[in-house]
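Hey, can you fold this one?
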Amino acid sequence: MGDKRWKIAKNARLIFGTRGNQMIGRDKEIKELEKIFSSNKAEMVAIYGRRRVGKTYLVDEVFQNRITFRHAGLSPLETEPQGLLEAQLDHFYNSLKLHGIKDEKKPQNWLDAFFLLEKLLQNVDDGTRQVVFLDELPWLDTPRSGFIRAFEGFWNTWGCHRKNLMVIICGSANSWMENELINNHGGLYGRVTREIKLSPFNLMECEEYYKSKGIAFSRYDIVQSYMIFGGIPYYMEYVDAELSFAQNVDKVFFDKGASLRVEYDRLFESVFKRPDAVKNIVELLYTRNMGYTRKSIAELLGVSDGGHLTKDLNSLIASDFVVKYVPFGLSRREEYYKLVDSFCLFYLHFVRNQLSTNRHFWQQNTAQPQVVSWRGYAFENVCFNHIDQIKDALGIRDVISSESAWTKKADDEEGMQIDMLIMRKDNVVNMCEIKFYSDDFTVNKDYYRTIQRRVEGLIAAIPRKMSVYSTLITTYGLKKNEYSGVFVKIITLDDLFR
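Sure. Predicted structure:
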């Protein structure tokens, strides 16, 4: 009987792999999960990523009808802190009852709860693969609950010895997933057999998603969508095929009762242990495109440059809200923290400051300077999130490189700002100008001279063995004229959609 069920499951997996099931992207993750499912050993799989990126959906779609036991932690936002442990245990007990546990008392602690889970799994064990899905695991680890110790006992004493057991753990609190589970130095050290960090959709996947929903956006509008939603599938679900792009922005952000108007606060409250402190950092980083050093963050926020700041910054990096980098020309000791989450950047720029709701704000302001200027900065962020596609278009996919913007402050000479530098190990620097235009970009005489000055300034700042290739990244291309030859390489939207 066990062999027969295993063959049925295998056939189901082969069927699921087709595009007919509307699973956009995630091909690599689906293949990896299926491979893990087919292994003949105990597996503990950690799936993590930014809130709303589609972790639960991935597991549901891959393992539909093959999950032996599933449970999701209760959001701490909905329960008083003093009653959270009891609520979590009650909820876990109810999940056990739904999956068939009978005549068992309600667990008083997590050790009892996992013992009941062991009994349930033993009672229904028929030799086939058992999938246990624990969603939003960080929410279960309430203060002084003993959850980690109990989970450690469940796995080390019982779970890891059962060859047909596959435990899938999901969580949006990436720093918790990394510190308490993946990089655990206690009893769970090295116990996670596989880890999958789920990333947002890239532009090509966004296009596939919209097409699958019958949404006829141009690539110009899809890029703008990425500037706002950041490739997060959950946010993209709110897009209505019957509305224009501008109308959709108003519907989800500025209309009465707009779906995503309160999402910003929920993002931090549901993921971070110190949501207010983390929001303060995010809102400071928003004020400066290149970001700030750690020392500057501490000084400007009036906080101690100590352990709490370290944990908050690391949590933001782990959750892909912030990146840490060294701007070109600075030493390794001058690391900067930069806000890169598209949703947060858009919200802080436009939504937060709407004191009175204008239901048609985006439609009425789409051609206004504040929106046009924002598109320019937001498109730079899109490009930094598509470095692989840019390198592929340049024919340097396998060349090791580092990417950074460069701002040279003015002293006695004119200041200079370069949108993106691709520093390549083959002794070439691509000096990239990034322009989001609704038509072909035109180089005039003044801009031609500006590019020449930037090339000359860059040559003076890099090793003599390196060459500079001026590169334009724009929407539709470059209009040919007597000055267009200043750019050696041209990259367009179509290249970013590779």
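Confidence is low (pLDDT under 50) at residues 1-20. Let me know if you want another pass with a different chain boundary.
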